[in-house]
UniProtKB/TrEMBL annotation:
Disordered, as annotated region: 303-347
Top-level taxon: Eukaryota
Name recorded for this polypeptide: Protein HGH1 N-terminal domain-containing protein
Domain Protein HGH1 N-terminal positions: 105-247
InterPro entries hit by this protein: ARM-like, ARM-type_fold, Hgh1, Protein_HGH1_N
PANTHER family: PROTEIN HGH1 HOMOLOG (PTHR13387:SF9)
Biased composition (Basic and acidic residues): 337-347
Compositional bias of kind Gly residues: 313-325
Lineage, uppermost ranks: Eukaryota, Viridiplantae, Chlorophyta, core chlorophytes, Trebouxiophyceae
């Protein structure tokens, strides 16, 4: 079996188009199963360069090669090898040049796998390269914001962004004033694509996760329009967000911000207490409710006093249905015990 696989890998470089085509189709098929990936992984030193050389070829050969690379790159060891082949920069070049028309989605999916490693995220962000820092990310964000075509080829950019924002260096770079990351992410929260909404909500949560330690809290707090959109989507003011994963990520993001005094003041300015009151009344997800309750307790310490509506449950009852009232930041602060909610970054 090993010798047969070695022959198959060799055929990827065959000068005869029909042989090469058959070989790459077989390799793609093998990567569709964990056993096939494991077997091919033993030959990755020769397989990966051979596959990547086929990426800029005509689509009949390029597409199965890219599918195989996407499947294989779920493994961290393969990700490391592909980074060593400069695969990430080459994928960006192909996107920039438009030399893989019709295969953009696969290129972005490969980028998503490669940036799951910190080294991959730093490579895409071009950290330490002066004026080039963030250029690739800006290009991907622009592609994400462009009106999607029928295939929505760039929806998977929304899965790259949580990877880039998992690391402090990435968050600091992307949240620099003028880059417009938060507003760009917030603009996708009303997309018809669940993939876009989930990915961007996860990236927003990552940006807020340790904003005080990152030194980005004021940059985030200044994004009033983005924060208002986040609150609107979380609380269902304009329309109900059906995906619980999106609401959970946004609720955790708001809680992270509310824990920082400077950011909480900006949330006051965005009428966060009033919007959260509306959202809490109809929220049934336990995680979202817990985050809303913990956030309300922080507003309570500023002088925000929750009051139950007739027939409603008091805030902190473990679920939606309660009413909030008495919002006034001028009242004396009330001492409260803080509700502990554990939040983790989005992988």
């Amino acid at each position: 079996m090993a010798s047969e696989l070695e022959d198959l890998v060799n055929f990827l470089s065959d000068s005869r188009p029909a042989i090469q085509q058959h070989a790459v189709d077989l390799v793609q098929g093998l990567t569709g199963s964990p056993d096939g990936i494991a077997q091919l992984g033993k030959l990755s030193a020769k397989l990966l360069p051979s596959l990547f050389r086929l990426v800029p070829c005509p689509e009949a050969v390029s597409r199965p090669a890219l599918v195989a690379l996407v499947n294989l790159s779920q493994e961290p060891s393969v990700q490391q090898q592909l980074l060593g082949l400069n695969a990430l920069a080459r994928c960006m070049d192909y996107l920039r040049e438009g030399s893989c028309a019709g295969r953009e989605e696969l290129l972005v999916m490969l980028l998503a796998n490669l940036t799951s490693l910190e080294a991959g995220a730093e490579a895409l962000l071009q950290m330490g390269r002066g004026a080039l820092e963030g250029l690739n990310a800006a290009m991907l964000i622009k592609l994400l914001l462009d009106p999607p075509g029928q295939q929505d080829a760039y929806a998977h950019v929304a899965t790259v962004l949580p990877n880039l924002t998992r690391f402090p260096s990435g968050r600091r770079l992307l949240l620099q004033p003028g880059r417009g990351l938060l507003l760009a992410l917030a603009s996708q929260l009303r997309s018809r694509s669940e993939l876009r909404r989930r990915g961007c909500a996860g990236a927003i949560k990552n940006c807020c996760f340790s904003c005080e330690q990152d030194g980005t809290v004021m940059d985030i707090a200044a994004e009033t329009e983005a924060l208002t959109t986040v609150l609107d989507v979380l609380c269902g003011i304009t329309a109900k967000e059906a995906d619980e994963a999106v609401r959970e990520a946004l609720a955790e993001a708001v809680l992270c911000l509310a824990r920082v005094d400077a950011a909480r003041k900006q949330l006051w300015a965005c009428d966060a207490p009033g919007m959260l009151k509306t959202g809490y009344e109809f929220e049934e997800n336990r995680t979202v409710c817990a985050c809303m309750e913990a956030t309300a307790e922080l507003f309570l310490s500023d002088g925000f006093e929750p009051q139950p509506e007739e027939g409603g449950a008091q805030l902190g009852g473990g679920g939606g249905g309660g009413g909030w009232a008495g919002v006034s930041s001028d009242e004396p602060a009330v001492s409260v015990s803080k509700r502990e909610v554990s939040i983790e970054e989005v992988d």
